[in-house]
Amino acid sequence: MVLHNATVDPYSPERGYFECLDCGTRETSEGLISECADCGGEVRNIAVPRE
């Protein structure tokens, strides 16, 4: 099988999308966020990776 899509998708998000695991607050940031601004809970990056 020959793959013709040899070019890697150049998409790279300019902003991260984060969601608090405790209170569900969502926020965007150009940098990394380690805790929720509202409750201090743990956050995760919910940006969907593209293949």
Automatic annotation (TrEMBL):
Residues 8-51 form the DUF7129 domain. InterPro entries: DUF7129. Pfam families: DUF7129. This is Rubrerythrin-like domain-containing protein. It comes from Halobium palmae. The lineage of its organism: Archaea, Methanobacteriati, Methanobacteriota, Stenosarchaea group, Halobacteria.
